[in-house]
Amino acid sequence: EVQLVESGGGLVQAGGSLRLSCAASGFTFDDYTIGWFRQAPGKEREGVSCIKRSDGSTYHADSVTGRFTISSDNTKNTVYLQMNSLKPEDTAVYYCAASRSGSYLVFRFAADEYDYWGQGTQVTVSS
Fold it and tell me: For residue 59, which of 10, 69, 98, 113 sits 20 to 30 Å off, Cα-Cα?
């Protein structure tokens, strides 16, 4: 059974940090690109960061560049999203997703390119 399980969300003050984890199982992790998305109440889902497991290449949305870092632990089939200098506008439910597609659209966070999704973890940043 394919599973993506997010953890690490919570409540943090503006300027603080959180590290989200996405634990994957049930598929060959190395063949996939893992992406983080977020969705705030009343807003559309947006892509945040992604990492291509095969070569480690990463991409971050402009809104988080310089503040968020995505990384991968090969031994644990886990991808992390380190979030620093958090802002109230970062408040959202954060989801990880996995894509086997080789299309450039994966790095443009096209949701249709992603095959599997986790249930999400809530991140709340207070001002």
Answer: 10
Q: What is the dihedral angle through the alpha carbons of 51, 24, 126, 61, rounded to the nearest 10 degrees?
A: 20
* 30, two tokens: 């190395």
Q: Is 63 helix (H, G, I), strand (E, B) or coil?
A: coil
Asked if 39 and 52 count as a contact pair (C-beta separation under 8 A), the reply is: no
Nearest Cα residue to 111 out of 56, 18, 35, 17 = 35
Burial of 90 (0-12, 13-18, 19+ CB in 10 A): buried
Q: What is the per-residue pLDDT across 53-74, written as a single tens digit (0 to 9) for each?
A: 888 999 999 999 999 999 999 8
- Determine contact, residues 96/88, Cβ cutoff 8 Å: no
DSSP designation for 19: E
Q: Are 97 and 82 in contact (CB under 8 A)?
A: no
